[in-house]
Design a protein that fits this description.
By secondary structure, the chain is an alpha/beta fold. It is built from nine helices and nine strands. The strands form four sheets. The protein has a three-stranded parallel beta sheet, sandwiched between helices. The N and C termini lie far apart (66 Å).
C-alpha cells in the first residue's frame, strides 16, 4: 500500500524553503523552532532523502529538495485555485504557465512572454531560474511548459524537444571607463586582454570561442560565470572586459549617464 503524503509536512517544508531558515519559517507558521525542525526531519525520513544543505547564506535546497519544492508549489497553487473556484472568483479555464529561464536570458524577453500570456489568457505565470540541464530535464518530465535557453546541448536531454528561435541579440564587449582605449584598434586591442567569460550553459560562450578561434587567438580568461550580475560587477571593477548582449551594455551606459 502506497504511503500517504503528509501535507502539513509538505507545507512546513515549502515555507522553510521560501524563507531559507527554520527560525524564520517557524515565526511565519507560528510554531516553535524545535517543533518545526522535528517536523522537517520526519518529512525527510518519510520521503527518504535530504532536502536541505546548510550554507553560510542559510539553508539551500539539495537537488532532490528543488524537485520537491517545485511539486509543493504546484500542489498548493492548485489548492488556491480550487478554493478560488469554489468561491466563484475564478473561471474553469484558469491555468498556470510554467516557464524555465536561464539567468543569461534578457529580462525583457521574459517580460514580453509574460505580457503576451497574460494578454491572451487569464493564466498565472511561474518563472523558474536554474541551469540549462535541470530546466530541460524538468521540461521533459512535464514539470515545465516552456524553457527559455540560448541553445540545446548535444545530449540525450535535447531528444524529443522542439526549439524555436524567438530573438537575436548583437554582442558587444563591455568594460569600465579605464578600458575605453581598447575601442581604438579593436579587435586586435583585446587579443591578450583579461576577459570575463560566460559558462558553457550559454550559446554565447560557444560563439565567442569560435570568434577567437577564427582569428587564431587564445582568450585570456580570468573568470567564468553564468551570473550576469557577477560578470557585470567584475567588469565595472576594471578587472576584465565582458562580452555580452549589446542591450546589456546600452542599459548600463544609460544608468551611468
Amino acid at each position: 500500500m502506497k504511503k500517504w503524503l503528509n501535507y502539513h509536512h509538505l507545507l512546513y517544508f515549502k515555507v522553510i524553503a521560501e524563507e531559507q531558515s527554520v527560525s524564520k519559517a517557524a515565526e511565519k507558521l507560528l510554531l516553535g523552532q524545535p517543533t518545526l525542525s522535528t517536523q522537517l526531519k520526519q518529512f525527510e525520513d518519510r520521503i527518504g532523502t535530504k532536502l536541505f544543505d546548510r550554507q553560510s547564506g542559510g539553508l539551500q535546497l539539495t537537488e532532490h529538495g528543488k524537485v520537491v519544492f517545485q511539486y509543493a508549489q504546484k500542489i498548493f497553487n492548485l489548492g488556491d485555485e480550487l478554493q478560488d473556484l469554489m468561491e466563484g472568483s475564478s473561471e474553469l479555464t484558469h491555468t498556470t504557465l510554467r516557464v524555465g529561464a536561464l539567468d543569461s536570458i534578457p529580462r525583457q524577453v521574459i517580460s514580453k512572454i509574460v505580457m503576451f500570456a497574460r494578454k491572451n489568457t487569464k493564466c498565472k505565470v511561474e518563472i523558474f531560474d536554474d541551469k540549462s540541464e535541470h530546466l530541460l530535464s524538468m521540461l521533459k518530465q512535464n514539470q515545465l511548459d516552456l524553457v527559455l535557453t540560448t541553445f540545446l546541448p548535444e545530449s540525450d536531454l535535447a531528444e524529443g524537444l522542439f526549439p524555436k528561435l524567438i530573438s537575436k541579440t548583437p554582442v558587444a564587449f563591455f568594460g569600465a571607463k579605464e578600458e575605453a582605449h581598447l575601442a581604438k584598434g579593436f579587435p586586435e586591442s583585446i587579443k591578450d586582454y583579461p576577459i570575463v567569460m560566460p559558462t558553457y550553459d550559454s550559446k554565447l560562450r560557444y560563439d565567442i570561442d569560435v570568434w577567437f578561434q577564427e582569428r587564431g587567438w587564445e582568450p585570456y580568461i580570468i573568470v567564468e560565470s553564468q551570473d550576469i550580475s557577477v560578470k557585470k560587477s567584475i567588469a565595472m571593477d576594471d578587472i576584465g572586459i565582458l562580452p555580452t548582449a549589446e542591450h546589456t551594455v546600452s542599459e548600463q551606459a544609460s544608468r551611468d549617464g
